[in-house]
Amino acid sequence: MRHPILVGICVAGAFVLSACDQQSDTDVERALSDINVVDESNLNEVMLNVADPNEGVTYFQRTLANNPDRIDIQRGLAKSLVRAKRNTEAVAAWKRVSEHKDATNDDQVDFADALIRSNDWERADQVLDSVPPTFETFKRYRLEAMIADSNQDWKKADSFYEIAVGLTTKPASVMNNWGYSKLTRGDYEGAERLFADAIKQDNSLFTAKNNLILARGAQKKYALPVLQTSQVERAQLLYTLGLSAIKQGDTNIGRGLMRDAIDTHPQHFEAAVRSLRALEDETS
Fold first, then answer.
1. Angle subtended by helix axes 71-83 and 53-66, to nearest 10
2. pTM to 2 decimals?
């Protein structure tokens, strides 16, 4: 009589062990799946910052082929194409992202950015107009300012640049853009102030230093301001100032500045030498 009971207990035990094994396998698979998601997320981030952006493009194209509906992979591909300066492809990629059911306002702004990089200003303006005005980010207003610049709507451009500056802790680049906007409209004093402010925020921004010299040269200020520069940078700034002086009709001053640039440069300054030679041949 004991045998059936014993068999029943053994069978029940077998079922319990089987259920435990199945539960254990499920837990392991879930854990491994979680690990894979973390690893993939980390890898995606690495590929967005890899030295060669084309490697990132290849990675996301390959991953997207197996996961065509995943918006994070679509975004990764679009961002990688922008980094690789493959602007036409980037526009198509960002359009695809913007049409995804899970697309965000940030995606629309990035789509507008890609359009601007492809010189499609009108379409970029239309895309930004579709973003609710309550969505206020640094990138959105920086792009709005650039579009206003392209339309020569200076009042609107100044307003957008000012808002953008207030929405970032690193305003140097947008100050430089704003200064260049002032420079193109002939507001040289305003441009000079903005370039100087940009340099105070980021002393490594050589573009702002060069633009500052252009703004000063346009006002016939031919002395270099006090700037922290390398010897090569100083030579390049002297050369820019020399060209500006020549453009203003101050040929002798320009010639002297070019000689200073050549003497300052630690190596052979081919561009300055060539320009000075051409200038001396023309006046001889």
1. 160
2. 0.80
